[in-house]
Amino acid sequence: MNVIDVIHNRHSYRGKYKNIPVPREDLVRIMQAGLAAPSGCNKQTTSLIAVDDPAVLAELHSVIDPPAGETAPAAICVLTQRINAYRDKCFAVQDYSAAIENMLLAIVDMGYQSCWYEGHITDDDQICRKMSRILNVPDSYDLVCFLPVGIAEDDPLPPKKKDFTERAWFNSFRNR
Questions:
Q1: How much is the pTM?
Q2: 161 located within any domain
Q3: Strand partners, 75
Q4: Domain contains 158
Q5: Closest CA to 33 of 86, 105, 124
Q6: N or C: fewer beta carbons within 10 Å in the chain?
């Protein structure tokens, strides 16, 4: 697929995954795509942990409630550090968001599926802290996203999107 096709074919996949391992070299390529994303003032606040050990995956899934991506044979956990770029400006959210989108696009391009789980694990119950302990993440990092990775059992269903003309204009808000 070309990049525009990948963008239009990427959808959040919340279904079951086939029991087929994701080769490490594929996980490396996906993570490299994430780390190639732009970073505000090049502070490179985003780090990644790929998990392909079934025992570690099971431990992570034991703390994710309600369950998410529990049949995926691999996952990538996204970490961030709050590093100010200049004055009091920190671009950590933008940095890790760009990295996640790059990885989601690489995942689809490589024939896999995923879903961006962030609010689910960073909510008031702080599942992310439990996950961080399992993965030995230092306190100076925040685990902000969980991306299951695998081959989908079912075709992802595209969500209903508003019409282009309801969300995009030329030369002013809602063309006159």
A1: 0.94
A2: no
A3: 51, 148
A4: no
A5: 105
A6: C
Residue 171: both structure tokens together: 């030369």
Overall size of the chain counted in residues: 176
CATH label of the domain that carries residue 89: 3.40.109.10
H or E element in which residue 29 lies: helix 24-35
Residue 135 lies in a domain: yes
pLDDT at position 105, please? 97
Residue 15 scores a pLDDT above 90: yes
- Spatial distance between the Cα atoms of 95 and 172, rounded to a whole number of angstroms: 28
Question: Which is it for the CA torsion 124, 95, 133, 25, positive or negative?
Answer: positive
Tokens of 22: 């994701």
pLDDT tops 80 at residue 176: no
C-alpha to C-alpha distance for 78 and 154, rounded to whole angstroms: 25
In total, how many domains does the chain have?
1
Contacts of 133 (CB under 8 A, 6+ apart): none
| Euclidean distance between CA atoms 2 and 8, whole angstroms | 10
> Would you say residue 87 has pLDDT above 90?
no
